[in-house]
Amino acid sequence: MTATEEKNTTGNSGGSGAEANPTSSPSWRGFRRFVRGRFDLSEDKASESEVIENIRKGIEFKGTNLWVLVFATFIASLGLNVNSTAVIIGAMLISPLMGPIMGIGLSVGINDFELMKRSLRNFGFMVLVSIATSTFYFVISPLSNAQSELLARTVPTTYDVLIALFGGLAGIVAQSRKDRTSTVIPGVAIATALMPPLCTAGFGLATLQFKYFIGAFYLFFINTVFIAIATYMVVRFLKYEKHSFLDSKKERKVRRSMVLIVLVTLIPSVVIGYRIVKRSVFEANADRYVATVMKFPQAQVVDYSRMLRADGSSYIDVVLVGEPVSEDAIDNARLQMSGYGLLGTELIVHQAGERGTDDLSMLSSGYRDLLSEKNRRIDELLQRVSTLKNDSLPAREMSREIAALLPGTTRAFVSREMTYTAEGAVADTIVVCLLQNDRKLTADERGRIEKWLQTRTGTQKIKLYLENGL
């Protein structure tokens, strides 16, 4: 091989290497610098001591913090009781629940056992006060029905886990900034929704419906753990300095204690989180299966339910109407369940006529109730039409009569009107009469027309207005 060929070969090899490793190109390095600059958290970052001190202040529940917690609990309980989303959001905005939870995550991140003990102590006190306050409210409240806003806080979902995690990340990032006046922290308070589950747990205790208490506290526990995990993750990402101990034995003891507390908290949350994800996946698969497979030419699905039991077994219950579907077609649908991740799930199919006379009676009763409601509404509308007819005045005939009574009348307006208070409430109903005449009426003529209006309209409440120089 000549020197020229060797040089060309070496050059080609170098070119191939550059092509094989695009990350070393200037454009790639420039892109990395751009992305790193955009996502850099060092800009506007508060000092480590300032962030820790700010979180420490929010941990303690006494004085103002405690009173605000009690008032926020009452507000949230009222919102759940009357099913008002706006009131619940207001309670979440003012509740100081994030402090101890972020304190727990921070204490693990910086290896501060004293901060962890203080955070856990205040966290337990916060939970106790909130549940006691909401229980007291629901005991004295005359409304004992579980509204939709309340029921929504009894069944945790995968989305609740993700909301708590990302909400916690946003919260600790906002806490680590110099400017904490942004909308991030109030937004986190709304998104993570810590207050409503505690109030729902109080409702469960007050009404002795322990399934609500367990479900709501279950949701609150999940939110708490994942907010604390998010706080720990950001604290370690920002490389906050860990506490060191002069006594190595004490350091080992503290670390073992912290690891034990973290495991006791984390293991149940992992198990709970796994079950939530498993149930959510099952429900999504069941919905997709029913929508795709349970389609028949002469029958359709009118209702279905799906359930994943605590023992791991599951079922899908489907109600069909229309022409009867053959057992072969239903068996074929069962064979397709494994393709939707539903292996071992029981398929229960109800067809029209299988449920007997009880369901027909319920259906007939439902139609009767619906018809009765429609008839009642029609009667109300007819009554309103009749009232409007009685209240209206024969303005055209009355205008001609006024012209006959008062020669020279060029225009007449007569109407029954309502007067209102400053608050918008109806105050009274009066008759308004506006007359245009080419001459000035005498006092006798004015009195005569007012008496005629009172007799003609059947009311003493007359307002007479005269125009054209009168």
TrEMBL record:
Keyword Nucleotide-binding: no
Keywords: Membrane, Transmembrane, Transmembrane helix
Record-annotated membrane-spanning stretches: 64-82, 88-111, 123-144, 150-172, 184-206, 212-238, 258-277
Residue ranges, annotated region (Disordered): 1-29
Transmembrane recorded as keyword: yes
Entry-linked InterPro entries: DUF389
Taxonomy, superkingdom: Bacteria
PANTHER family per UniProt: AT15442P-RELATED (PTHR20992:SF9)
Protein name: TIGR00341 family protein
Species assigned in the record: Alistipes indistinctus YIT 12060
Lineage: Bacteria, Pseudomonadati, Bacteroidota, Bacteroidia, Bacteroidales
